Amino acid sequence: MLDTAALQKHFGFDEFRVGQEQVITQLLAGVNTLAIFPTGGGKSLCYQYPAVTREDGALTIVISPLIALMRDQVDALLAKGLLAARLDSSCSPKESLRVLKAIQDRKLALLYVSPEGLADEELVKVLRGVDVALVAVDEAHCVSEWGHSFRPAYLRLAKVVRKLKAAAVLALTATATTQVAREVRKVFGIQKKSEVRTPFHRANLQYRIHPVSGEQRNERLFGLLQQEGRTPAVVYATRREDVENIAAFLCEKGIESRSYHAGMNAEGRAEVQDGFMNHEFPVICATIAFGMGVDMPDIRSVVHYHVPKSPEGWMQESGRAGRDGGVAYCEMLACEDDRRVLGNFIHANRPPRRVIESVLSGIFVQTSIAVVSRYDLKTMHDLPEAVVDILLAHLEIAGFLKLKGRSWKRGRIRPLVSEEEMLSAYAGKKRRAIVALLELKGNLDLLEVSGQLGMKIEALNELLEDLEVGGDIGLSRTHRLHLYRIAKIPESIPDLAGELHAAFKMHTDRDLERINSVFRTATTRACITSALLKHFGEKLEKPCGTCSSCIGEKRPRKLPCSETKAVSLEELEKIQVLVATRHAVLSSPPRLTRFLCGINSPAMMRWRLYFKDDWGLLRRLSYEEVLTIAEAQVM
Predict the structure, then answer these.
(1) Does 503 map to a domain?
(2) Which of 191, 311, 325, 343 has its CA 20 to 30 A from that of 207?
(3) E strands within 422-538?
(4) Kind of pairing between the strands at 473-486 and 401-415
(5) Does 472 reside within a domain?
(6) Which of 620, 561, 516, 552 is nearest to 209 (CA)?
(7) Class of residue 580 by CB neighbours under 10 A (exposed 0-12, middle 13-18, buried 19+)
(8) Does residue 198 contact residue 19 with C-beta atoms inside 8 Å?
(9) 233, 283 Cβ separation under 8 angstroms
(10) At what angle do helices 446-453 and 457-469 cross, to 10 degrees?
(11) What are phi and psi of 573, to 5 degrees?
């Protein structure tokens, strides 16, 4: 039995939740463990408790992709007097250096780090020099290509984790199907018997489906939120502009609301999130950018204004309601129009074969080291960042590339001491490089400068970091670079492009099937809760008794769908005018299709094309229909 006195002392709980004690006991016995707990199930305690109760000074490493979550948990642990720190992209070099020293001095119990951060060989070297008791991998489903949010940075984790020689490994997720769980166990060396899966079913959550047309959504939403006991509420919508419009509508109707999405700056998002959690207003309207790591116990409603794109997303977002155990409502405003909108986003993210071939040519034309700018790949080829990451990940998996390190492309230097004082600690090549750097002004292209100085880009960045940490210069850097060792050259770039194009089709097909699964569940006459849980391999002994189906709400087999108007001659003329402008961003059928469907992309954002009058002109049509029109217009 675990010490509940320590649980009360450090965390304020009298007893463990279901599954927590079993997970912790296994970890303390050195058993690699997979914990599949639903959203709000208490995953973080599984690694925090053993970390703060250890007496041997060994380190617990928590790998998380969520900077906001890391920041919140570290702040909470520090407030309790516990030894915790984080390393992520928001840390300055000085902050990072302090954390590294604390690790080496054995003055940390918990270290939070991003998966991308573990690509830093220097950090891994430091971590290998200390005793590591536990490595906890949060959002572990991201390691699986079969999952709903595959993240390429997770591919390298298993190898790094093995290097750290931790006494135990803990993989954590809230959304793993049986297939994804199998893959996670395989990657991290976890036996099936060491998987701890707690029930996804939470009897206090009532799933309700409301078939609506697009024009009915706002009034139905207003009606729901007016009912007693429905706030605080989170309203999820697909697009940023929808989020802002919904919040404005509710405010006009007398329900104070705020919008939250990734297009806002960090300060704005933090202000809205804190205001909602402090009950300063009852409703937050958000994209799925909101919610990860937010532990607000008394959310009474989660409303999906648009149909969610996967059962995993539906379950995870709904699970943010009712964490206090009280009755909470998980509402969906279900409209057939959403199937087309969600499908359009997925089709638009699939890169054309010729674009893939162009990316490959740009990488393999380089020498033994390929310097890759994800920003350049995004903007030059108009590819979403996730697509770029997956493309590079496939090249790593196939053994063509090996990540060597990271660097920066641009920098601005501001001397803080005299040149004589700065040069006093350096000699030889570094001294000459500093003299040359001080002669340069403005925003520097570090790749170009490294060539002029005869230094490798990583060596130049290391010198600049030394100068900054030493207080000699103020340094701002932008435009992250990734350095890959070219392990082998493809025999045929066109053939490899074809293979990757097929892989992206596989991803697309999986994502489309997830959408279809949500719509099947939304229109079933059977228990909605049971149908949703079945996706995760869980079976209810009897219907939930509280969902729309169980309480006898009648719903049509077919959801309301807007009438689709044919493309008019006037619209065709507008498209021809767009093509005639010969704007580079609209120069190919896929790019023109994204514009006409109103789907943002790096190039659309860079050129602010979403302000044009014809933006989203044909968003009422499917991506395939619009692509056919665009192909006929762009020669």
Answers:
(1) no
(2) 343
(3) 444-445, 473-486
(4) antiparallel
(5) no
(6) 552
(7) exposed
(8) yes
(9) yes
(10) 100
(11) -65, -40
- Average pLDDT in the chain: 92
Nearest alpha-carbon partner for 335 in 151, 562, 500, 110: 562
Would you put residue 487 in left (φ > 0), alpha (ψ -120 to 50) or beta? alpha
Give me the number of domains the chain comprises.
Answer: 2
The Cα–Cα gap between 620 and 623 comes to 9
**Residue among 332, 165, 162 at smallest CA distance from 237:** 332
User: pLDDT: is 93 or 516 the higher one?
Assistant: 516
Nearest to 87 by CA among 109, 59, 67, 107: 67
The DSSP bridge pattern shows strands 473-486 and 369-372 to be antiparallel
Residue 353, classified by CB atoms within 10 Å of its CB into exposed (0-12), middle (13-18) or buried (19+), is: middle
Helix ranges (DSSP H) in 402-492? 419-423, 428-439, 446-453, 457-469
The CA–CA distances, whole Å, from 307 to 206, 304, 516, 522 equal 17, 6, 11, 9
**Strand arrangement, sheet containing 233-236:** 205-211, 328-334, 301-304, 233-236, 283-286, 257-260
Q: Contact at 8 Å (CB) between 358 and 494? A: no
598: which 2 tokens?
A: 């109103």
439-470 pLDDT tens trace: 988 889 998 999 999 998 889 988 998 999 89
CB distance 412 to 125 below 8 Å: no
Q: Domain boundary residue among 131, 164, 197?
A: 197
- For residue 75, the one-letter residue type is D
Distance CA 620, CA 310 (A): 22
Q: Which residue has the higher pLDDT, 306 or 93?
A: 306
Contact yes or no for 83/110 (Cβ under 8 A) = yes
Cis peptide before 232 (omega within 30 of 0): yes
CA–CA separation, 523 and 508 (whole Å): 23
Cα separation of 406 and 116, whole Å?
10
CB 468 within 8 A of CB 415: no
Which structure tokens are listed for 516?
């279809």
Distance separating alpha carbons of residues 309 and 392, to the nearest angstrom: 25
Q: Quick check: 328 and 229 in contact, CB under 8 A? A: no
Positive or negative, the CA dihedral 413, 419, 421, 424 is positive
β-strand 444-445 against 401-415: which pairing, if any?
antiparallel
Residues 6+ positions from 122 with CB-CB distance below 8 Å: none
Placement of tokens 């920041």 in the chain = 71
Domain boundary among 179, 197, 215: 197
Q: Which pLDDT band, with edges at 50, 70 and 90, does 393 fall under?
A: confident
92 is a domain residue = yes
CATH number at residue 32: 3.40.50.300
* Nearest C-alpha neighbor of 155 from the set 391, 503, 479: 391
Indicate the pTM of the whole model.
Answer: 0.88
Q: Is the pLDDT of residue 154 over 80?
A: yes
Does residue 118 form part of some domain?
A: yes
DSSP-derived 3-state class of residue 165: coil
Burial class (CB in 10 A: 0-12, 13-18, 19+), 442: exposed
- Domain of residue 118: give its range: 4-197
Name the token pair of 517.
């699964």
Amino acid in position 260: Y
Query: Counting every residue, how long is the chain?
Result: 635
* Measured distance CA(437)–CA(432) in Å, rounded: 9
Name the phi and psi angles at 509, rounded to 5: -60, -40
